[in-house]
Specification:
This protein has helices at residues 18-32, 108-125, 142-149, 177-181, 186-189, 206-213, 222-230, 238-243, 280-291, 313-324, 339-351, 366-375, 391-397, 408-413, 437-453, 455-467, 473-486, and strands at residues 3-6, 37-42, 53-66, 69-80, 83-91, 132-136, 160-165, 173-174, 204-205, 216-219, 248-250, 300-304, 329-334, 358-362, 378-381, 401-405, 430-432. The protein is of the alpha/beta class. It has 2 domains: 3-254 and 473-486, 3-Layer(aba) Sandwich (Rossmann fold); 277-467, Glycogen Phosphorylase B (Rossmann fold), CATH 3.40.50. α2 (108-125) packs across α3 (142-149), α3 (142-149) crosses α6 (206-213) and α9 (280-291) packs across α12 (366-375). The chain is globular, with a radius of gyration of 23 Å. The model has no long low-confidence stretch (mean pLDDT 96).
Length: 489
Amino acid sequence: MFVVMVTPECAPVAKVGGLGDVVQGLANELAIRGNPVEIILPKYDCMRYDRIWGLTKSYGDLSVPYFDRQIHCDVYFGLVDDLKCFFIDPHSEHNFFNRGLFYGHNDDVTRFAFFCRAALEFMLKANKHPEIVHCHDWQTGLVPVLLYEMYKHVGMTHPRVCYTLHNLGHQGITGEHILRQVGLNPGHLITHDRLRDDSRGNAVNLVKGGIVYSNFVTTVSPRYAWEIQYTGLGMGLQHTLRTHSQKLGGVLNGLDYKVWNPEIDSHIPCRYTIETIENKYKNKEALRDRLWLRHGFMPLAAVVSRLDRQKGVELMRHAIFYCLGNGCQVVLLGSSPDAAINNDFLWLKHRLNENPDCHLEVGYNEDLAHLVYPGADVIIVPSAYEPCGLTQMIAMKYGTIPIVRNTGGLADTVFDADHSDRPYHERNGYSFNDYNNQGLESALRRAIGLWHLYPQYFRELMCNAMRYEYSWKDPGTHYLNIYNYIKEP
């Protein structure tokens, strides 16, 4: 089955968060199973060009409508870890993708609306006829709208659209000008059953457009699929999602075990398996040496995260002091797009600089992350909401016990050691329900207590966690089933 993914990210060349990992992991899984996969991305100036093999101009005469004029684009082709990728490079005074950042500009909606039109124009002019166009997040919400309102009338009658919502915290709320920009009729589309935002008057909601016009909508975990329909996590789109619930489903993200696996991880001093799990502690000693933490008989808790409200930044801060006050070392690795949050943690780092049981690394270092996962005993993921989450999956593969809030993909993957209704050998961590300090403390207290008082049971929990399989194998099957369900008969 020929699949084209239209996406703002693909790891490792263009990655801001989990979206990039998902595109790479799913595309690899589909390709391994014999399905032709192509990926269309913007040609950002800040990509990892060292990870693109054979980048060459493959199409040099692509004119893309922009309001009442045309913008000329080149399209480049290159291989990213054997994945076929096309990069759209517009030549315009707007400099859409030469900003030094992937997102975060005032005209992001304009930039990605242009990308949607350019991606379809390229498929049309290059005579590509995929059976499935798989779009990702708000940045590509206009692709299914354009396909069914415009491009099916000029020959693109074949493709069906799967649209994946990675995080409804971002929806592409804008004005009617964005529709005129890409050549669509605002009067025809700004209605309650199409693109008009459910709660903001005459605003245009790009994610709503993607939901309404796609053939199937997925989220990145089953629990999140329920939450966005029936709780405030739908961020205003609950009605639209329930209206289209017959074509909505949750597929848990997978994890690339070629990258995150203690059996083969080249970044860590000592590799290990369940059978040699005692070697994990050599990595704990190496982590302490690297970060100048004291050696002693105590558990080590870690946070590896983007530092923002969604990820539970207030609870992370509280966890640092709770752990230090309860016989537990702490390592934090993360940064924030919000300067105020970064500065707060830099101040905290300065305050705790002399503490031999604490190290805060404000920034992101992939090499250090590979040492933190096997070096920690527990990892704290206190998200306010979490569509899927990869942190807890990575931690479990390394035998590091996740302590999570019971939401979204965290609830789908972490089963409480004390309170889960699963048999003991299937329990793999600790969870808490209430988003407050007391909830977090209840889970931390139980985890730290088990480590100190019942080390044999803690080790069994580590082995339980390592046995879980969260590769792309099952998600790949689910997506192929969805593709087969919606493809043209």
